[in-house]
Amino acid sequence: MLSIAQNEKLTRVGQGTPMGELMRRYWQPIAAAGELYERPTKAVRVLGEDLVLYKDRSGTLGLIDRFCPHRRVDLSYGIPEEHGLRCMYHGWMMDETGQCIEQPFEETVHPDGRFKEKVKVAGYPVRELSGLIFAYLGPQPTPLLPHWEPLIAENVACDIAITELPCNWLQCQENSLDPVHTEWLHSYWTRYQQLAAGQTVNVRGESAPHERISFDLFEHGIIKRRVLRGLGEDHDLWKVGHPILFPNILQVGSPQKLTMQFRVPVDDEHTLHISIYIFRAADGAVVPRQDPVPYYYNPLIGEDGRFITDVTFNQDYMAWVTQGPVARRDLEKLGESDKGIIMFRKMLNEQMEIVQDGGDPMNVFRSDLDDALKLPVEPSRGFVNGAPTRYVPQEAGPSVAHADIERVLATYV
């Protein structure tokens, strides 16, 4: 178990906190690019900061303080102009750096005045990659946006799922270091629910019992491995494994269908969970351009007021959220199955110390990103009804607005 103070160190993400300063060294996805096609401004909260993401009429992306420096109104209701975001209240305009560039009445009264030069709000770099908008909230100089191979792969189709979770980010990420839960939460409990509802048992992605687990450090984080009953150490689950990318990314899936999951801290008690699915084309197939990449928001609660739990990811969400806004790690009793979680917590503390000493933590890149950052991928995964199969992540699926993805996916393996 951890002390209360140790738990707070790992979970508090505000400015000036050890974890907050570590997380600010990384590019974090904050929205789907397609959201700005529908409305060019979006209120966002990330790492405890209230910001507005916008696209101006020239196509430039900006991420600045959500509240106008004049009278503190919400700029997510502002007006994107050719080169900035104009406040709808009195017309002041800020550019993507947060610098005030126009003050209409002030400039009429004082044509030679320099008041606007003294007015600046927070402004952060943003970049679009693979249909996601990433933001960097840390100190300068800005590091390079990592080119993880799945995010820059060619001739692929992508689909983005977003879920807003009322719990701390670490509860979500520690799940990735917990292989044993799959046979219980996603198999045994799914069977129980289906039987209790009088349904035919049908467990997709079912896991056989675990017989061995292991975790190996590698240059980008931790490789998770497992031996399931009926499969030996020559199986990809053990021989290859799949990566947890430091500090808050999980990659899982097969070469035909990969998922990258980002657990973005909104604040101490909320997480933006973003999953991007990357579907690789079958031989000879050509993927039509996606502009924008389709996205959807995943609901947590059903019409009955209970968690939706008939899809795999939502079972995880239920488990994370029901631990409370911030899990009481001072009360937990860890066992042998939790050695990956213990390893990850140690890594977090080591990387926080590097930041406190003025260094760059793991996966902060300054150069040499001409090539893709390649990662291990398991060619095959798991059991379904006793037969080896490719694991299929399950979520609610694309909304009607993104039905075009179904046509595209018909060409995939």
Key features of this structure:
alpha+beta; 8-stranded mixed β-sheet; 4-stranded antiparallel β-sheet; 11 helices; globular; disordered C terminus
State the total count of DSSP E strands: 21
- Taking the alpha carbons of the first and last residues, their distance comes to 45 Å
Helix content: 10-25%
The largest pleated sheet is described as: 8 strands, mixed
- State the low-pLDDT regions, or none: 382-413
Class by SSE composition = alpha+beta
Shape: globular
The rounded Rg comes to 23 Å
Count of discrete alpha- or pi-helical segments spanning 4 or more residues: 11
Q: How do the strands of the widest beta sheet line up side by side?
A: 13-14-15-16-17-18-12-19
Mean pLDDT across residues = 89
Residues in β-strands, percent? 25-35%
Describe the structure in your own words.
By secondary structure, this protein is an alpha+beta fold. The protein has 11 helices and 21 strands. The protein has helices spanning 4-11, 18-23, 35-38, 104-109, 149-152, 169-174, 181-196, 236-239, 312-321, 339-356, 404-409; strands at 27-32, 41-46, 49-55, 61-65, 79-81, 84-86, 93-94, 100-102, 123-124, 126-129, 132-136, 156-165, 210-218, 221-228, 242-245, 249-253, 257-267, 270-280, 295-297, 381-384, 387-389. It has an 8-stranded mixed β-sheet with strand order 13-14-15-16-17-18-12-19. The chain has a 4-stranded antiparallel β-sheet with strand order 2-3-4-9, with no helix packed on it. The longest helix is centred in the C-terminal third of the chain and has 18 residues, at 339-356. 39% of the residues are buried.
